[in-house]
Predict the 3D structure of the following.
Amino acid sequence: MSLKVYNTLTGKKDEFTPLEPGKVGMYVCGPTVYDTSHIGHARSVVIFDVVFRWLKASGYDVSYVRNFTDVDDKIIKRANETGTDPIALSEKYIDEFHNEMDALNVLRPTIEPKATEHIQDIIDFIGQLIEKGKAYHVEGSDVFFSIASFDGYGKLSHRNPDDMIAGARIAVDDNKRNPMDFTLWKPAKPGEPAWESPWGPGRPGWHIECSAMSNRYLGQSFDIHGGGKDLIFPHHENEIAQSEALFGKQFVKYWIHNGFVDINNEKMSKSLGNFTMIKDVLVKYHPEVIRLFLLSKHYRSPIDYNENSMDEVIASLDKIYSFMARAKKAGVPMKTPGEVVEYSEEDEVMGTDGEDWEAFKAGMDDDFNSARGMATIFDTVKKGNKILDRNPEALHYLEKDRLEVICSDLQKMGNILGILSQNPEAYFKAKKEAGLADGNIDPSEIDKLVQERMDARKSKDFARADEIRAQLDEMNILLEDGPAGTTWKFS
RNA sequence: GGCGGCUUGGCCAAGUGGUAAGGCGACGGCCUGCAAAGCCGUUAUUCUCCGGUUCAAAUCCGGAAGCCGCCUCCA
């Protein structure tokens, strides 16, 4: 089975065939670093992180470029408002972004170029567009791209320029030859960051940055370009216009766009004041809970962030880790977090890939269907639990082998989704500690009560035992009596 | 006004022509002193509605209703 990818350009799922066998060039629009990142940024980044992981796991040599837009009107505006230097401001938010993405177990892309470090590339790009008659400089104003010079304008967003002009809600700039022409280079006002150029001191427009940087690192044509759905128009449409007008060949083969995150069924917006920042979500939930949530729905659909959904995801992740803990206790070898569980052709040849991995693979190959992948994970856990239930004390060696395959599959799947990267013990220990800190609870108190209850049970004083259990329940502590004694956790 | 998307059980959510995955919840059972966890079983004759195509449709076509997004900075 081979990979199929929904392509915004063609409007259907296309068979994925890279331009160069075995290699993939992928560019994803990164953030404009003028503010703290929100859960919507996290979704985009996590989704493309999974795409990146899946392509690598499928054996491709992937060059993954994700840029930072670090010069922009919004950055300058924010810098002026806060009295900071624009460069320092963007640096701050780049650091923040990195910290948050690291926390979310997002792999670093191959290259993370910044617009400000590619000004010369941008200037060269614009210069060539002007030479080719695809762009023009208006004296005392901007350099504009001329959409009339590019036949394919509108092919990504599936609209035609005339319709767009008719419905345009923007004030038309008299300097433009066509209302839909867009800025490539913009003159700087006094005090604004500026770079020297043949068109006077100024700064690049937003769209040209991505064309210039993708060309620098991935060439004139590459395989995948991604970003949020909102970027389809105008940003990606404009990138196509710039790059294809200059190079005369197809810019990108597959365009992938992710859907938005809603908050309690409302769009995130300034007016609603419901911007949900990654750092706040990270305080409330385990990073893997956040990832699992973001991947629980198909990447193209909108997803709703709300407490109920998050609680369900917590239960799901607990369930998976509980199984891992059980399996480990039963003596099934579990890879440690340091050992990366990668897909390999060797496994396939050796037959150590289980049926569950195959099922997962089918889901991921079908347009990165992580929701389907999650269903497979639960199936896998159920199979494993069933074996452990049958014979928890002394596993037959065949059962042990079977469990080994199940656990290996499970960890491979987790590795693609970027979850299950912890030891189960560490996972539950961290959870416990968070609960203790939250409720300001002294663990020795609990241990004392648990011990007292165990003694009560031994002497068949079940009334007392239940009383203690009820008492702990009020502290949201749940007891589990097992063959090896009583354990507790936060509910 | 233009373009696009969505509507699946109590909730979340897969499924794009062959007879409804999975999760949460609920209920019954096994297990347990009782629970919890885990496992087993039950929980959509049906996929917003109305027509049509087809041997066969949640899936394709036409129409209606509701919701949402983009067209302006936006993941």
The CA atoms of residues 398 and 404 of chain A lie 10 Å apart. The two ends of chain A are 42 Å apart (CA to CA). Confidence is low (pLDDT under 50) at residues 348-352 of chain A.
